[in-house]
Design a protein that fits this description.
The protein is of the alpha+beta class. It has 2 domains: 88 residues, Beta Barrel (Elongation Factor Tu (Ef-tu), domain 3), CATH 2.40.30.130; 143 residues, 2-Layer Sandwich (Threonyl-tRNA Synthetase, Chain A, domain 2). 21% of the residues lie in helices and 38% in strands. Bound molecules: zinc ion.
Amino acid sequence: MTQPLFRDDAYLTEATARVFALTDEGGIVLDRTLFYPTGGGQPGDSGWIDWPGGQIEIATCIKGTEGALIAVPAAPGPLPPVGVEVILRLDWGRRLRHMRIHTALHLLSVVIPLPVTGGSVSADKGRLDFDMPESPEDKTAIEVALNDLVARNLEVTESWISDDELRANPGLVKTMSVAPPMGTGKIRLVMIGSGANQIDLQPCGGTHVRHTGEIGRLRLGKIEKKGAQNRRVYIHTV
Ligand SMILES: [Zn+2]
């Protein structure tokens, strides 16, 4: 199992780790990593792995079996030996853009309070699919509301709760915008704003900026019809 360092600190850009195993496909399994693996609609991180006598560029990270996170080299080349200590360096510019868009999608789910059926994050745009039979009449109002939430510079905080704690606090589930997955033991909650200014609380394993102001100005993109019940709403950073 690879310890996911990005989960406790999404702003970590460099770390040491040890090579746990190499896969038949040339992937590198580490004992801990700061590379976020492709999942939840967010692309895997890229960066570099350095070790005494070698360096390899990492194109992405994927989930393996039994909690292993696999760093995937950009091109075939000499790999670090199993057991060696390596230095991980994140392509921070790309990840920060993913964090801005990902956090902006939380805001979109606040501004459009409808059930979300899917989503995707890239460096300069993102989308959510909503259970939305009718297209919204006032697109400008959505964009204004999004940028208001950005301008309020609300704090984004993360906390963990156990299944038992959640069962003991049924009111908490009611305040969440998405039902948490049960039976996993521990659930990570992401809260935007706090106290009277709390605007969103939902279970999420992704990477977020610390304050909504870091997202920067947003532009509402196109709204596509996807079947009878669904609409795909795009947002862009500007
Ligand atoms: Zn999230």
